[in-house]
Amino acid sequence: MKILGSNENFLGIVEPEFCNYSDASYVIQSVPYEHTSSYLQGSANGPAAIINASQFVEFYDEETNTEAFKSGIATLEQIEFEGKFDQEAIDLIEEKTLKLLEDQKFVFSLGAEHTVTLGLVKAHKKYHSRFSVLQIDAHSDLRQSYNGNKFSHASVMARVHELEGITLSQVGIRAQCKEEADLIKSSAKITTAYAYQIRNNPNWIKGLMDSLQDKVYITIDADGFDPSIMPAVGTAEPNGLFWNETLELLREVISKKIVIGVDIVECAPFQNSILSEYTLAKLAYKIITFLEFYKKP
Predict the structure, then answer these.
(1) Is the CB of residue 184 less than 8 Å from the CB of residue 148?
(2) Is the pLDDT of residue 118 over 70?
């Protein structure tokens, strides 16, 4: 297992004691798998772009008055898929993640397309039999298959929904087909806070919290944010989440629940702009900061 050095690790941490694997509480795992992107491509470049942008994120967090990087954040060399697709790719992600969990690390994954979340969730299920997946996303990703592929990014949450003991809570959904809407209505395992509902309900976070089990895995699709603050995504949709309301949700979840893992996916960087990757790098560190600040005994 290769650990990246200070010139290429998350946050550009130079002190060895804060970025070596053996002492780190957190590991940053890059999962640049892109095979089924259906609109704009380029998400395979997302993990590296986020890590590069993180070099300019400040260590100090003014809200919590902490420097969470001192809890130890090790950055791993990206996973190489070497011609593996669909089920084989999912199995590889599960295998790699499982090894990190066996070492008692909190795994924070940066993915390309959303398909990677299935492998990540399956690995965590080996340790936690029952938990909720909190999905921040523009799309519900609940198609049974897309373009003939049941492992499409548009079907990843349909596969997660099939896993026993896991419930799904979705936030910011604003683009789906009727098949997906019908599944949401018929399933007792899915709670969806549509974007239009969030705008009209000041208590939407409480409703969502009530749907979550005690343990939560968080997956954040970059297109869950509004394109005005997150333009570099594969499939942008208007009326997305903004920074403050997203942090309000994450703060509530992390302080009240046991968060077992996190991923950020679907950043597709483009030239002459660093807005999306920098915002996601700052978001990743903010989540780690909350995890440390609200750490459970």
Answers:
(1) no
(2) yes
